[in-house]
Specification:
The protein has about 750 residues and is an alpha+beta fold. The chain is about 20% helix and about 30% strand.
C-alpha cells in the first residue's frame, strides 16, 4: 500500500496500491444496513499487506451490480486497486476488477475458515439470492437437542381451555402439544431496523382438544427452527398469548374432527418472558397424553387429473428431472427462488410436474437430484387451461410445504402411510438404471404450457405481461439480475431461421466473460414452417416502403394486433390438431415401449413387512449400471432466410443478439459419478468457495440428441433486429419436457439471466 490520501469525509482514508493486488474470493456474503440496498462483505485471500492472509472487506454499494449479476462470486479472482479505510480500520473496496479465465484457488485455500461479520452490530448474514432460507453456522451450531422431561408435577392446560381463559392471566400453565404443520421461515428485517435476528416462523400445534398457531420469534429461530419438525412433541412454558394476525397463509388441515382456533396465537419470545421450549424424545411420548397422530393426504399420479384446482395434497415419487434454480422478483425487489421437478410413480407413465419454491430447507433443496425418492407435503393443485379447452394439472408448493429426499426419510411419520408403502414396494422391484438414462438435470423449463393463441395468452395473464418494443425488451433484459426470470412479450416479423446442431453449444459454465441472457422462443416444427411461409409471402408482396408503412399501421392498436395474430393461428388450428395428435400418439408409443416393464400391477396386500429393508430404501441410493438406449425421434435440419432480409438489414439500427445458446440452457444427463458437480452447476452460485465449484470434469453429456433453431425477428418499424433461439426442438429422451412436446406454441421473450 503506497499512498494514503484524506477524503472529504472526516475519519476516512483512501488506500491506493502501487500494483493492484490480486486476491482469490473465498466468500461473498449479504446483509442489511442503514441504507435501502443490500450490502456485501467479501472475504479475500492474498497478499494485501505483504503477507498471505485471509482478509475481509466491505464492498462499496456502487459495485453491488457485480454481485447481483454474479460476476463477482466465490472462487473468482479479484484485482483491487482502491479501497477506503475508516478510522477504526474498517475497509471498503471502491475500485476492483474481476479477472477472467483464471485458475481456481487451491483446495486448502477454498476450505479456509470465513471470519465473522465485519460490523459488530451485524449478528447474521442473509442468503445471497433470496430471504426464505437460513444461512450461516449459527443455524447449525444452535440446533436444540431432545431432553427427558418430568411431567408428573406439571399442571398442563389444554388448547381449548386456553382459548377461552387466556385474557387477564399473568402466568400461563404449560402446554404439551405436537407439531402438526410447519411454515417456511420469514425474514422481516428492513434497512435501519436494529433487531439482532428479525426472523419469524409459524407452527401449527395440537393436543386432543384442538389446533392452534405457535409463533417463533427472533433469536429463537436459529435455535429451534431446524429442530421443530412435523411430528415433534414439545413442552412449552413462559409463553405469551395474543390476538392472531389474520393476514397470513395457513395450512389446509387434514383433521376434520380437530377444532382449529384461529383467534389467538401463542408467541414464543427470546425475552420478556424468555420462552422455555423442551423437545420430548419419541420414546418418552405416552399414549395417555392423547396427542393426535400425523395424517397425510397422499395421491397417486393417476388421481391427479381428477382433482379440482387449489386442492391440497401430498405426493411421493421417483425423481426423473430436476430443473435449474431461477429467481422471480417480488414487488419489494426481493426474490423468490423456484425450480421445476418431475417425478413418477407406479400408476402412470405421466410424471408429476412440481413447481418447488424454497421451503427453508436448503440442505435438502440443493441436494435434489434424479433417481431419488421425493416426498412433498401440502402441495396445491393448479389446473392450467390450454389448446382446445383441455387442461393440465401440476402441483405448486405452499408456505407450509416440506420436502424430503433419500437420506432424510427415516423416522418420518409418513413412512407408515399405505400409499407410501405401496410406492416403496414398487420402487424395490425396479432397476433404477431404467430411469437413469431418461433422467436429466437443468436447462430452461418452459411451464405452464401456453394457450393456442396469443389473445388467449394475453387474457390468461390478466394484464401481468405487457407488449413491449424490442428497445424496451433490450432494456429489460439488461436490467435482469443473476438467474432472474421475467415474462415479456414482443411483436415482430420472422426474417430468418437457422438450424444449429448441438455441437455448436460452446462456452463454459463458469465463463463470466460471455454471460448472456436466455430469451426463449418456442414453436412446433409445423408452426415454424407455416410462419416462415406466411412471412415469406408477406415480405415478397411488400416493397420496403410499403412494408414499413404496413408495420407502423399494424401497431396502432394492440387489440387489433392480438386479434390478427389470433385469427392467423386459429386458421391453422385444424391442421395443427392433427399434427399434435400424431406427435402425441408416436410419443406415447415410445413411452409404452420403454415403460412396459416399469409399472407392473401390484397387489396392495403384498407389502414387505421388513422395516430394515424399507429403511435401506429410505436412507441410501443404489449402485447404478448401464442400460440400453431409448429410441429417439429424428427432427428436420432446416434453415431459411427471407429474400427481403438483406434489404431490411441495411435499415436496422441495432442488432440485439440473444440467440446464442449457452450450456446453462441445455439439460444435461445425470451421472452418479458426477452428481455433486452436476447439481452444483444448476443450483444458485454458492456464497462460499467450494472445491465443487471447480470440478475439473466438466464434460457433462447433454440430454439433447438434436440441435436448436435461432430466429431473427425484426420489429415493426425495422429499427431493431433480435436474434432469438428456439430450444423447444428436443430429443425424445429429454423426459423433462415430454409433455411440452405436444403443446408448445409461439412464445417470444420468456427471459432468464443465467
Amino acid at each position: 500500500m503506497a499512498e494514503l490520501e484524506l477524503q472529504p469525509e472526516p475519519g476516512c482514508l483512501t488506500a491506493w496500491f502501487d500494483r493492484a493486488a490480486v486476491f482469490w474470493v473465498l466468500a461473498v456474503e449479504r446483509y442489511l444496513s442503514d441504507c435501502p440496498v443490500s450490502r456485501y462483505d467479501v472475504t479475500l485471500y492474498g497478499q494485501g499487506d505483504g503477507d498471505w492472509a485471509t482478509l475481509k472487506y466491505s464492498l462499496s454499494p456502487q459495485l453491488n451490480f457485480l454481485v447481483e449479476r454474479n460476476v463477482l462470486c466465490s472462487g473468482c479472482q479479484l484485482r483491487v486497486s482502491r479501497c477506503s479505510v475508516l478510522s477504526d480500520g474498517f475497509r471498503v473496496i471502491e475500485r476492483a476488477e474481476v479477472l477472467k479465465g483464471t485458475m481456481p484457488p487451491p483446495a486448502y485455500v477454498a476450505s479456509l475458515p470465513i471470519p465473522p461479520p465485519l460490523r459488530c452490530r451485524i449478528k447474521y448474514y442473509l442468503p445471497l439470492w433470496e430471504e426464505s432460507d437460513y444461512y450461516g453456522e449459527d443455524w447449525i451450531m444452535q440446533t436444540h437437542s431432545q431432553e427427558f422431561v418430568n411431567l408428573e408435577d406439571e399442571q398442563i392446560i389444554a388448547l381449548k381451555e386456553l382459548q377461552f381463559n387466556w385474557r387477564g392471566r399473568l402466568k400461563m400453565a404449560p402446554l404439551l402439544v405436537r407439531v402438526m404443520y410447519k411454515s417456511r421461515l420469514w425474514h422481516y428485517g428492513t434497512a435501519g431496523k436494529n433487531i439482532d435476528w428479525p426472523y419469524q416462523a409459524y407452527f401449527e400445534v395440537a393436543d386432543s382438544s384442538g389446533m392452534m398457531s405457535v409463533v417463533l420469534w427472533n433469536s429463537l429461530c436459529p435455535k429451534f427452527f431446524r429442530s421443530l419438525e412435523v411430528g415433534t412433541v414439545i413442552l412449552i412454558q413462559r409463553y405469551v398469548v395474543k390476538d392472531a394476525f389474520q393476514m397470513r397463509t395457513r395450512p389446509v388441515s387434514y383433521y376434520p374432527d380437530l377444532k382449529t382456533y384461529k383467534e389467538i396465537d401463542i408467541s414464543l419470545n427470546p425475552q420478556k418472558p424468555a420462552a422455555d421450549i423442551k423437545i420430548i424424545p419419541p420414546k418418552q411420548v405416552k399414549p395417555e397424553w392423547r396427542l393426535p397422530n400425523i395424517k397425510y393426504r397422499f395421491i397417486t399420479r393417476d388421481q391427479l387429473d381428477t382433482l379440482p384446482d387449489t386442492y391440497v395434497c401430498d405426493v411421493i415419487g421417483l425423481v426423473t428431472f430436476v430443473g435449474r434454480c431461477e429467481r422471480i422478483r417480488k414487488k419489494d425487489n426481493a426474490f423468490w427462488v423456484r425450480r421445476f421437478v418431475e417425478m413418477i410413480d407406479q400408476t402412470s407413465m405421466k410424471p408429476f410436474i412440481l413447481e418447488l419454491y424454497c421451503t427453508s430447507q436448503p440442505d435438502i433443496y440443493n441436494q435434489l437430484h434424479p433417481v431419488s425418492f421425493l416426498v412433498c407435503t401440502q402441495m396445491r393443485v393448479v389446473r392450467n387451461n390450454f389448446h382446445g379447452g383441455c387442461s393440465i394439472a401440476y402441483l405448486t408448493s405452499t408456505s407450509e410445504t416440506q420436502i424430503y429426499i433419500t437420506g432424510y426419510h427415516k423416522g418420518r411419520p409418513y413412512t407408515t402411510d399405505s400409499t407410501v408403502r405401496r410406492f416403496i414396494q414398487w420402487a424395490k422391484s425396479q432397476h433404477k438404471t431404467h430411469f437413469l438414462e431418461k433422467s436429466a438435470v437443468g436447462g430452461y423449463y418452459s411451464f405452464p404450457p401456453l394457450p393456442s393463441n396469443f389473445q388467449a395468452y394475453s387474457q390468461n395473464m390478466k394484464g401481468m405481461v405487457a407488449l413491449v418494443s424490442l428497445w424496451e425488451f433490450k432494456e429489460n433484459v439488461e436490467s435482469l439480475h443473476y438467474r432472474e426470470h421475467k415474462h415479456m412479450v414482443v411483436q415482430g416479423v420472422i426474417t430468418a431461421v437457422k438450424y444449429k446442431s448441438q455441437n455448436t453449444l460452446t462456452g463454459s459454465l463458469m465463463d463470466k466473460k460471455h454471460t448472456q441472457y436466455d430469451a426463449g422462443t418456442y414453436l412446433t416444427m409445423w408452426e415454424i414452417m407455416q410462419l416462415l411461409q406466411s412471412g415469406r409471402t408477406e415480405l415478397n408482396n411488400c416493397t420496403s416502403n410499403e412494408y414499413k408503412t404496413k408495420m407502423v399501421n399494424d401497431q396502432s392498436s394492440t387489440d387489433d394486433y392480438l386479434h390478427n395474430i389470433s385469427k392467423t393461428i386459429e386458421s391453422l388450428e385444424s391442421k395443427e390438431e392433427d399434427t399434435l395428435l400424431a406427435r402425441s400418439t408416436k410419443y406415447e408409443a415410445i413411452q409404452a415401449s420403454t415403460m412396459k416393464n416399469s409399472a407392473p400391477d401390484l397387489d396392495p396386500n403384498s407389502l414387505s413387512n421388513s422395516e430394515e429393508t424399507e429403511d435401506e430404501y429410505f436412507t441410501a441410493d443404489e449402485d447404478i449400471s448401464e442400460m440400453d438406449e431409448v429410441p429417439t425421434l429424428k427432427l428436420l435440419n432446416w434453415s431459411w432466410e427471407s429474400s427481403k432480409w438483406s434489404e431490411i438489414k441495411s435499415r436496422v439500427k441495432e442488432f440485439l443478439s440473444f440467440g446464442r445458446l449457452l450450456p446453462e440452457s441445455c439439460p444435461q444427463k445425470f451421472e452418479y459419478a458426477k452428481k455433486e458437480a452436476i447439481m452444483n452447476q444448476h443450483n444458485l452460485q454458492s456464497s462460499r468457495c467450494s472445491s465443487l465449484l471447480f470440478d475439473s470434469s466438466r464434460d457433462f453429456a447433454t440430454a439433447w440428441s438434436n440441435g436448436y433453431y435461432a430466429l431473427t425477428i425484426v420489429d415493426m418499424i425495422s429499427k431493431f433486429a433480435d436474434a432469438m433461439k428456439i430450444d423447444g426442438v428436443i430429443s425424445s429422451k429429454q423426459e423433462s419436457v415430454k409433455l411440452q412436446g405436444n403443446i408448445d406454441r409461439l412464445k417470444v421473450g420468456n427471459c432468464l439471466n443465467p
